[in-house]
Amino acid sequence: MQRLRTVNLVLLIFLALASGISKIMQLPQEMEFFQGEMGFGANTIFLFGVAQLAAAALLVFEKTRLIGAELLAVTLCISTVIIFMAGKIGFGFFSILPIVMAGIVIKVTAPASPMFRKAQPSPRRPR
After folding, report:
1. What is the rounded radius of gyration, in angstroms, for the C-alpha atoms of the chain?
2. Which DSSP letter does residue 62 get?
3. Which positions ≥6 away from 29 have C-beta within 8 Å?
4. What is the tens place of the pLDDT at every residue in 31-85?
């Protein structure tokens, strides 16, 4: 099971890197889709790519993995909604898969995250 989690995480990191870099580099396909279909500006697309790249970097480290998975899930949800709004239903359903993958990372990481650990009572000093 641990191997599947690791494979899921690695695939998600590479997906976030590829998606973020393509938006930062403003590849024609990305620009055409986001500008033509939705009317996003170049700066908005660039910032969206930066968010995905930041999510990939945060996913690498265990302490920041939860935040990275959440950030990536948000950006992927936004992309998927845009894909559905553009009428690309088949690709939209396929785009749900990375969101599920990010959800798995969130589910696995959240209980181990320092945010969710119960606070330990401080030891009392003897009087």
Report:
1. 18
2. G
3. 22
4. 888 887 778 888 999 999 999 999 999 999 999 999 999 999 999 999 999 889 8
Put simply, whether the predicted model's pTM sits higher than 0.85 gets the answer: no
Instruction: Measure the CA–CA gap between 94 and 50, rounded to whole angstroms.
Output: 23
Sequence letter at residue 58? L
Domain residue extents for the chain = 2-112
d(CA 8, CA 63): 18
Write out pLDDT tens, residues 6-36.
999 999 999 999 999 999 999 988 888 888 7
Largest CA distance in the chain: 73
Q: Are 33 and 58 in contact (CB under 8 A)?
A: no
